[in-house]
């Protein structure tokens, strides 16, 4: 912030859909970066030793990591769909006018696909936790 | 401070016109006097207000009747001069266009300076960096060739092309609502881009390439993250994010249409 005098404890800016979708885009983007970073490392392990690779990948086989995976899919889907929305805002002449409607399309698509993904992705965890 | 502040009662205004429901509101102002305060702090003021009046009237009442040291800018009081942009209930607005009834007066109404420019005192910020960015985009007609002997003729259609961005009153509500500007005060900001747009798309102007080159800077138009805060904040209803996108596209295609 440019001014020292403004300091902490001012109000949070009350931006609307555009501001919060930008916050979400940045948060999911940073999450994706860290995931890819870890993913490059664990995949590179196969060059060290296939056995160690199998061991490390083996530690992922639990419900907690499964939940993280669901979160990853959620983050990727939001980031990708909202990324297309931002491209539309910049390149489609009517994009800025319909940015809010476009965001509801993004959120709707996201919700529907997440619901569809949930069962196949979490089958094993559901079985372990609830005996389904 | 208590937050239950509505004590509605009927007052008769000076002109003898009865029936205006006056109400007592709390205005919570972020105050800062560099000569005595280490940091800005909130101060609450109770004032009687007509719900259909503007929050600027309440600021006047506080300054004139309670604390003469309260400092803010205003001139026209009618949304024309662009002096009184401030952050009211968390959003940038002109105090002279924000009606009390639209600000949820049952709770304290917060008033703070616009963010990202140095606070000089209370609600007054140093606008110089803002105006410097405005000057940097050359906000004046650049025409080469012979001076016409009559006015520079322009079709209605050509005039309409940039009509929206002629409405700017340089209040800085847009630039100081922008998260990119808060984080990076070097960013030209929406207002400078709006005023560049006003000339870039003017058929009488020959300086489009010059201005586009200025906005191609790393602190130029590419900093925009399309948060739409500027568009929501503009008291003139200028479609700012759209104007910025048009400048981005003109830079990519090198065509001004
Ligand atoms: C599915 C493919 C992807 C698409 C379509 C996409 C698209 C976008 C778009 C359009 C933006 C907005 C840029 C702006 O605000 O001007 C963005 C922001 C961002 N992306 Fe992606 N992206 C994708 C994948 C990724 C990946 C894999 C990463 C991580 C390595 C990533 C990291 C980021 C970050 C950190 C931001 C925030 C930038 C900012 O807020 O300024 N993105 N993405
Ligand atoms: S574009 Fe709108 S918000 Fe920005 S300075 Fe001009 S009038 Fe104010
Ligand atoms: S005082 Fe002139 S715009 Fe508000």
From TrEMBL, chain B:
Catalytic class of the enzyme: oxidoreductase
Occurrences of domain 2Fe-2S ferredoxin-type (ranges): 23-117
Entry superkingdom: Bacteria
Pathway it works in: Carbohydrate metabolism; tricarboxylic acid cycle
Occurrences of domain 4Fe-4S ferredoxin-type (ranges): 158-180
Gene3D superfamilies recorded: 3.10.20.30, Alpha-helical ferredoxin (1.10.1060.10)
Pfam families xref list: Fer2_3 (PF13085), Fer4_10 (PF13237)
Cofactor: [2Fe-2S] cluster; [3Fe-4S] cluster; [4Fe-4S] cluster
Keywords: 2Fe-2S, 3Fe-4S, 4Fe-4S, Iron, Iron-sulfur, Metal-binding, Oxidoreductase, Tricarboxylic acid cycle
EC identifiers of the protein: 1.3.5.1
Cofactor note: Binds 1 [2Fe-2S] cluster. Binds 1 [3Fe-4S] cluster.
Signal peptide (UniProt feature, chain positions): none
Catalysed reactions, as listed in the record: a quinone + succinate = fumarate + a quinol
PANTHER family in the record: SUCCINATE DEHYDROGENASE [UBIQUINONE] IRON-SULFUR SUBUNIT, MITOCHONDRIAL (PTHR11921:SF29), SUCCINATE DEHYDROGENASE IRON-SULFUR PROTEIN (PTHR11921)
Family: Belongs to the succinate dehydrogenase/fumarate reductase iron-sulfur protein family.
The protein, known as: Succinate dehydrogenase iron-sulfur subunit
Organism: Catenulispora pinistramenti
Organism lineage string: Bacteria, Bacillati, Actinomycetota, Actinomycetes, Catenulisporales
């Amino acid at each position: 912030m440019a001014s020292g005098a403004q300091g902490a404890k001012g109000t949070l800016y009350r931006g609307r859909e555009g501001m919060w979708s930008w916050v979400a885009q940045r948060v999911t983007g940073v999450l994706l970066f860290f995931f890819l970073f870890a993913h490059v490392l664990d995949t590179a392990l196969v060059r060290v030793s296939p056995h160690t690779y199998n061991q490390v990948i083996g530690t992922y086989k639990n419900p907690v990591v499964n939940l993280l995976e669901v979160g990853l899919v959620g983050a990727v889907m939001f980031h990708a769909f909202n990324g297309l929305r931002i491209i539309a805002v910049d390149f489609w002449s009517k994009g800025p006018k319909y940015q809010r409607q476009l965001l509801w399309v993004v959120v709707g698509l996201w919700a529907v696909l997440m619901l569809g993904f949930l069962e196949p992705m979490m089958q094993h965890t559901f079985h372990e936790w609830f005996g389904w | 401070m208590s937050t239950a502040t509505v004590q509605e009662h009927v007052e008769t205004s000076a002109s003898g016109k009865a029936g205006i429901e006056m109400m007592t509101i709390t205005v919570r102002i972020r105050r800062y006097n560099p000569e005595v305060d280490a940091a800005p702090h909130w101060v609450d003021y109770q004032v009687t207000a007509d719900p259909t009046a503007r929050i600027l009237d309440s600021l006047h009442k506080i300054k004139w009747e309670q604390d003469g040291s309260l400092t803010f800018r205003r001139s026209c009081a009618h949304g024309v001069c662009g002096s009184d942009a401030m952050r009211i209930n968390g959003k940038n607005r002109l105090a002279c266009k924000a009606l009390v009834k639209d600000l949820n007066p049952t709770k304290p109404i917060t008033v703070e300076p616009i963010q990202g420019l140095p606070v000089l005192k209370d609600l007054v910020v140093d606008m110089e960096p803002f105006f410097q960015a405005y000057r940097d985009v050359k906000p004046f007609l650049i025409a080469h060739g012979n001076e016409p002997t009559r006015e520079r003729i322009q079709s209605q259609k050509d005039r309409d092309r940039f009509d929206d961005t002629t409405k700017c009153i340089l209040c800085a509500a847009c630039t100081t609502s922008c998260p990119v500007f808060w984080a990076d005060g070097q960013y030209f900001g929406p207002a400078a881009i709006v005023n560049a747009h006003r000339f870039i798309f003017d058929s009488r102007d020959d300086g489009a390439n010059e201005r586009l080159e200025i906005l191609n800077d790393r602190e130029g138009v590419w900093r925009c993250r399309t948060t739409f805060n500027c568009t929501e904040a503009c008291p003139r209803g200028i479609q700012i994010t759209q104007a910025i996108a048009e400048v981005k596209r003109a830079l990519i295609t090198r065509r001004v249409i």
